Amino acid sequence: MPSGTILVADDDAAIRTVLNQALSRAGYTVRLTSNATTLWRWVSSGEGDLVISDVVMPDENAFDVLPRIRKLRPDLPVVVMSAQNTFMTAIKASEQGAYEYLPKPFDLKELTGIVGRALAEPKSRRVPASEEGQDNIPLVGRSPAMQEIYRVLARLMQTDLTVMINGESGTGKELVARALHDYGKRRNGPFVAVNMAAIPKDLIESELFGHEKGAFTGAQARSSGRFEQADGGTLFLDEIGDMPMEAQTRLLRVLQQGEYTTVGGRTPIQTDVRIIAATNKDLQHLIGQGLFREDLFFRLNVVPIRLPPLRERTEDIPDLVRHFFAMAEKEGLPAKQIELNALEKLRRYRWPGNVRELENLVRRLAALYPQDVITSSLIDLELSQPSMTTVSDEPAADKDLSSAVERFMGEYFGSFGEDLPPPGLYHRILREVEYPLISATLAATRGNQIKAAELLGVNRNTLRKKIRDLDVQVIRTSR
């Protein structure tokens, strides 16, 4: 049976009542206050086993109280709640030493679970608070999908864990990588980004590890590689799915041994970098094709982060539009406002280019139109342009799924030349079809598994098993 005294500070009486009922039912003793002054008096007198506090209170901000609590009682876990729901709120909570950050509204079962874990953990678990972060917000959005990402990022800031960021083009993968660096323990070191797709295959090893003079034709002098340039900081490997197999083998060796040699060199060089990788491809699909090393995947995929496409977080579009207009104004473009009807049209658009496409549209609106207020008719005009309705310059899509599969299989067998692919093709192909089918259906139903099972025509338990077996990430959002 759980036990302990929970100190709750929130100036909203309804929140205090709900928390009191939920925590009391769970077996805890609860003390309630509406201000930070009383909370501090309780803490300084030695009361309480855990604190739950809102950020904004009438007399003082919780982020001002947290350092004093950490200094006086470093083993007292503090759970921070906030309706502000920005990336910086989550980061500040982590930096100030909060045990957990919860955006409002939150799930009561999740809260009681957090309380139970916090009280059960050894008191030595606490992580020292670091210096306060900057005020400029690198990530924008208050949707449930983004809130979960903020919480994951906040937990990762004081670690050197390798991170794999997966998301469609334009979702902001490098922005997330930079946030992990700029607000993490390596913030004073270099951030070096490498796009694997932009480097000729025969130069990737030299680009990553450097080369010695005379190592190959044209190597007139020694050149440092990106690993050396990123020493003490973060190395961001973008489009990792485009790395050739030879370079994958060397990268795996570096991750395993913590050292590398330059091209043409013999002396091992110790490396001290945090690796963050990103891709818009399905690496497990590439593994099945024999194009990506499975052991490297597991080395890189220590902490996977999936960035949702903009169509899964349309409630963030107003905040993103205001943010991009503000950025454009700082760069000297005219200040703009936007009608609610215009915002609604933006929310209904599918955004094949994701956040990057939205940013480009906003900059175009700020630069090309003299009107101070962007109307829905202007949005209609922009969204009707061919550049806004095509995803890429690739050939037109196949007329049906059967044609697409037939074309894909022809290309797949062709990639092996005169050889054949590894055995087990039937089950690999079925898995590759099942994953996007289930993932797309869950996205369309906003993560509602009951609706998804009904739409697919399968039993709900069958769907749950497929989600678990295929490791499908479920993002729950509201329409």
Automatic annotation (TrEMBL):
It is found in: Cytoplasm. GO terms for cellular component: cytoplasm. One of its GO terms (biological process) is regulation of DNA-templated transcription. Residues 5-119 form the Response regulatory domain. Residues 139-367 form the Sigma-54 factor interaction domain. SMART domains: AAA (SM00382), REC (SM00448). Keywords: Activator, ATP-binding, Cytoplasm, DNA-binding, Nitrogen fixation, Nucleotide-binding, Phosphoprotein, Repressor, Transcription, Transcription regulation, Two-component regulatory system. GO terms for molecular function: ATP binding; phosphorelay response regulator activity; sequence-specific DNA binding. PROSITE patterns: RESPONSE_REGULATORY, SIGMA54_INTERACT_1, SIGMA54_INTERACT_2, SIGMA54_INTERACT_3, SIGMA54_INTERACT_4. InterPro entries: AAA+_ATPase, AAA_lid_NorR, CheY-like_superfamily, Homeodomain-like_sf, HTH_Fis, P-loop_NTPase, Sig_transdc_resp-reg_receiver, Sigma_54_int. The modification 4-aspartylphosphate is found at D54. Member of the two-component regulatory system NtrB/NtrC, which controls expression of the nitrogen-regulated (ntr) genes in response to nitrogen limitation. Phosphorylated NtrC binds directly to DNA and stimulates the formation of open promoter-sigma54-RNA polymerase complexes. This is DNA-binding transcriptional regulator NtrC. The gene is ntrC.
